[in-house]
Amino acid sequence: MIAQAIRMILTNLPVILCIAAIAFAALSRCNGHWSHRYLSWILLLAVGFDGIWAGVFHVFFPGIASAQIGWQPSPFEFEIGVADIALGIVAVISFWCSLSFQSAVAAYAILFYIGVSIGHFVQAFGHGDYAADNFGMLLALTIARAVVLAILLMTAWNRNVLGQAGGSIDARA
To answer: What's the whole-model pTM score?
Structure first.
């Protein structure tokens, strides 16, 4: 029973981290606009820790990672794993950094997630790979993270710019 619970948690860790990011952001009492708070927590947990988690599997357990995605093991498994770990580490660091630093990390994550999503669609429709981790919840989560990060990033910057301009859209007014 304990082994099943651990397996369920580890299998669903990306979803758990996204839910935790939203919960911690909602419960957080830090100053600042809600969009920056949610951006920070999503970068820390849903991008950062999840990226490190995914990278560890791709680098150190490529057979397991490939099988889950429906791929054959490949030297590219190491490369995507290192990219995941690198993104994860800078996303974790960004939690304690400025909106400018977070913006750079979020922009990279958005582009990375879009590219990954396109690759998974190609694998599904072009090669019939409908494995759960290729064309399932993880793909939906990847797309959702890209969209949510983009919205939070734009909202945080709009709030930041409007706040500096005295709340007016046109600072000349």
So the answer is: 0.89
